[in-house]
Recover the amino acids of this structure.
């Protein structure tokens, strides 16, 4: 069991120009943004190159763009901030960013086309190699929630099988590892991989491929709508995803990174954002093997930019003129409390048994409203600290002992109120 102090960071959304800032790269603006982030006591950033801007042609990876990414990493390092870099962007805040060489007249499947795969691996390897000697470079994430391109509800998906998703992930992670050996290279999906029946990206892939498991916790997925902003289910959703992910891990000590979590309006009212931060952080910190928490996001999206979903404009810990918001103050307090008095959480000794086969085709029982999800939340509301164990591991004494599990509970034995 890990005893290291969890990391606290932020997904960096530039205060000026959002991720379009790569088109008008301004080191002075970035310095000011990073100063405002460091002032919260955070220790790392997750940053997002836009794939079409960095690789506009399959055989052209723009040297100047790569230099600017390295410069951003160096500016962060000057402020004591480590940096994780996402590669294939991919999808951000409801917008898709795919290179022209994958779309329309050049339309080809981004997960299976041999030439696209060659271009992707060259790109990821190039970014990782450029950063490999930077001491504050944490590692690469293959892309941001790129699984959303693989099926519904995407309007134009590149459909694949779970076997094809597995092969794609392994090839992309290998490219990152060859570029920067030994760093924290991983992949990250939105919660369809945990909740959506027949989704080609699976829980086993999320929990077994790469150096850590990433979870993205968003309560607008039906949790807040069903249970309400101040509910146990909303406050514990991130902890639930962390524990759910651990059920699929083969290594009981595998780290889990809460890589995205935020307080979306109106699902979380503005006057409840600080409470949501406190409850969510406390729940996540009560999960063994937590690598860290990376809040979404650093700065609000400017109202001068059009066509974002309404909730995207107010997710920052800071305003887009760099004033600290209540959620930002709550994060800063949490950071200070952890760093002055951290004690690793005790094992979650009671486990709720998840009876799903290895392929996990019908995983909607784990989604908000599903029988497994609701049973977990009822246990939590009753004061328990449930872990999750797969039925196939529930009869393995060595696995249970490694996780500190001493009691098992079946879903059907959790009484409904």
């Amino acid at each position: 069991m890990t005893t290291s102090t969890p990391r606290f960071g932020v997904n960096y959304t530039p205060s000026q120009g959002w991720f379009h800032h790569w088109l008008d790269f301004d080191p002075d603006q970035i310095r000011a943004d990073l100063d405002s982030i460091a002032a919260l006591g955070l220790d790392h950033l997750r940053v997002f190159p836009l794939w079409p801007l960095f690789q506009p042609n399959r055989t052209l990876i723009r040297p100047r763009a790569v230099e600017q990414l390295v410069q951003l990493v160096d500016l962060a390092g000057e402020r004591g901030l480590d940096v994780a870099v996402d590669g294939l962007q991919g999808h951000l805040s409801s917008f898709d960013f795919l290179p022209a060489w994958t779309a329309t007249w050049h339309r080809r499947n981004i997960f299976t086309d041999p030439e696209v795969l060659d271009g992707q691996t060259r790109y990821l390897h190039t970014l990782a190699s450029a950063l490999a000697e930077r001491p504050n470079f944490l590692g690469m994430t293959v892309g941001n929630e790129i699984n959303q391109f693989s099926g519904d509800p995407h309007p134009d998906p590149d459909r694949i099988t779970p076997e094809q998703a597995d092969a794609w992930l392994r090839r992309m992670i290998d490219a990152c590892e060859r570029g920067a050996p030994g760093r924290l290279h991983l992949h990250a999906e939105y919660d369809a991989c945990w909740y959506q029946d027949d989704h080609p990206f699976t829980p086993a892939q999320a929990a077994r491929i790469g150096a850590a498991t990433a979870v993205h916790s968003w309560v607008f997925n039906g949790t807040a709508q069903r249970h309400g902003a101040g509910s146990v289910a909303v406050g514990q959703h991130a902890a639930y995803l962390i524990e759910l992910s651990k059920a699929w891990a083969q290594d009981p000590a595998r780290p889990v990174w809460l890589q995205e979590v935020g307080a979306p309006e109106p699902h979380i009212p503005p006057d409840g954002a600080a409470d949501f931060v406190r409850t969510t952080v406390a729940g996540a910190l009560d999960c063994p093997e937590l690598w860290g928490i990376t809040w979404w996001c650093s700065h609000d999206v400017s109202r001068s930019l059009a066509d974002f979903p309404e909730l995207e404009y107010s997710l920052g810990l800071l305003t887009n003129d760099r004033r600290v918001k209540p959620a930002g103050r709550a994060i800063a307090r949490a950071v200070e409390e952890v760093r002055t008095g951290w004690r690793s959480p005790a094992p979650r000794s009671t486990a709720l048994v998840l009876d799903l086969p290895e392929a996990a085709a019908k995983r909607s029982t784990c989604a908000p409203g599903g029988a497994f999800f609701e049973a977990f939340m009822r246990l939590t509301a009753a004061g328990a600290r449930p872990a999750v164990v797969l039925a196939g591991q529930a009869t393995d004494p060595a696995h249970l002992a490694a996780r500190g599990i001493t009691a098992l509970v079946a879903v059907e034995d959790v009484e409904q109120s």
Notes: The CA atoms of residues 14 and 299 lie 7 Å apart. Residues 350-413 form one domain. The first helix runs from residue 27 to 38. The mean pLDDT is 96.
